Amino acid sequence: MTSKEVLFETVKLGSITLDNRVGVAPMTRTSATPEGVATDQMAAYYAKFARGGFGLIITEGTYPDNTYSQGYFDQPGIIDNEQVQAWKKVTDAVHQERGKIFVQFMHAGALSQGNRFVSDTLGPSAVQPKGEQMKVYGGDGTFPLPKEATKEDITEIIKGFVEASKNAKEAGFDGIEIHGANGYILDQFLTDYANKRTDEYGGTTENRVRLLVEVSRAVREAVGNDFPVGIRISQGKINDYYHKWADKEKDAEIIFGQLGQAGLDFIHVTEFEAWQPAFPEGEGTNATDSAFGDGPTLAALAKKYGKLPVIANGSLHDPKKAKEIIEKGEADVITLGRGALANYDWANKVKSGEQPEEFVPEKVLSPNAKIKEFEV
Fold this sequence. Notes:
Number of domains: 1
Mean pLDDT: 93
């Protein structure tokens, strides 16, 4: 079976059918206005991927409330009418190119390094985040010590996702992805060393995944059964790249099992290399090592225990790798980051038998590392 036959089959995610199994991954870009309003340039940027044949586009992380969720200055939001109307221009532009676009809701929590609403940060516990802020997005030095979320704060987090979900439907999006990955607040609750709570949101893996499940169920209730809703999950984080779940497959069984019963339509997993085992053998193994062993991938574990359609992300810009992970039944859709930046028409190229170009950062990034609007 050829890449064309596998990658370009139609596939269902919830109530919608995608034209193919190739999507654009969410990528932080910080190119909205200071007030979080999407721009005409952003509309052109996203529409270009639809014109290039991608069956699904997932937006950059978009903040869902006006308190602790914003992570970066010039990040788009979806909290008021001005932002909703601006996103309508984006969704209209994508739809005119026959594409489908999901919005990703991102609450940065303790990893916020630019928030126009508040000066402090919020986390599951008052634990110093690992690593340092990303200079390419205006950060400098260590992350501030977050304040521990109260029960009222948790209620407000959920409420923010709910209200943003209603706004997403009004803005014309085709679906929603909840950002539960990469070290942001939902992942902070899931992460053992970041979450030292002793209530029902802390301790066991079942407790630490609770907020992700509650947000998923609340969003589902807010948008109804006919609007696609999924969640993104990772082990690694922007501030802790090689983190692995302590109980390995047992944790995967609990996390994906719980999410599989939370009313979601898909699980989007991301690893550095999606085809590698989720839990490498040996201590200190990282994504550049060769001795990975033969264990299941994170995508395969999501499929096994979540029993939902799976989107896989992670260095799948080689059409052969993209084809294989779908052929193996580990994923239903693949998403590309670097591959999409290097080839806004990756899907069209592969479908016609053309070899995609390699990602060269200098070609698609401006000096401050933001994506060049019209050169992808």
